[in-house]
Amino acid sequence: MITVDQAVDKVAKIAENRWQDWVRGFGDWPLKILLKPPSSEEQLATELLEAQNWAGLWQVALKAGRLPGELKHVTRRVKGQGNYRLPDRLIVPDVESALATAPDVAARYRQAEARHQQAIAVPAVRWTTPADIPTKAISRIEKLADHDWAHALITAEWGAHKMDRAERHTPVGPNRTA
């Protein structure tokens, strides 16, 4: 049985490891975090009080808004004592919910998202969607200070302008082709 904090930390760790894929539009949603309730009647019977307390803590966390998603439950039976509804999985529906567990990662994600949209808007940049941006480029773009990023955009725009002018002024004649 994993705790609320362990599950939320696991989501934060996944966000840390996958945010660059997410900013590029990759990733399967929803995320499903296994909570590991007692898996057998015997195990539940042995740990019944602990399991009930554990399930209660999950419900409190859900009602308090501490979870980045919803709970999926499973029903387990203990002979002679009835059925028990236990949390089985934490279902994290989307990127924003996952990023809510890791504010530093969320800030990096949002910065990268904005920068990638800015890059895509520059005609000289060959990327047309975030999915086109290689992971190495994402890492390099992320490491740039804001003023360096601004200079990179200006340079790319200048390059696009120069290429456009060169194409318009390329001499065309019998010995020259455009």
Distance between the termini: 69 Å
**Number of helix segments?**
7
Helix and strand pattern: HEHHEEHHHH
Q: How many separate domains make up the residues? A: 2
What structural class should be given to the helix and strand makeup?
alpha+beta
- Please state how the strands of the largest beta sheet are arranged side by side: 1-3-2
Low-confidence spans: 168-174
User: How would you characterize the largest beta sheet?
Assistant: 3 strands, antiparallel
Q: What is the overall pLDDT average?
A: 88
Which shape, going by the Cα principal axes?
rod-shaped
Helix content: 40-55%
Beta-strand percentage? 5-15%
Counted beta strands: 3
Radius of gyration: 26 Å
Question: What order do the helices and strands come in, and which of them pair?
Answer:
Elements: H1 4-23, E1 31-34, H2 41-46, H3 48-63, E2 70-78, E3 82-92, H4 95-99, H5 103-120, H6 135-143, H7 146-168
Antiparallel strand pairs: 1-3, 2-3
Helix pairs in contact: 1-5
Describe this structure in words.
The chain is α+β, with helices and mostly antiparallel strands and 178 residues long. The protein folds into two domains: 4-99, no CATH class; 103-168, no CATH class. Helix content is 54%, strand content 13%. Strands 1-3-2 form a three-stranded antiparallel sheet. Helix 1 (4-23) runs parallel beside helix 5. The protein is rod-shaped, with a radius of gyration of 26 Å. It starts with a helix and ends in a 10-residue tail after the last helix.
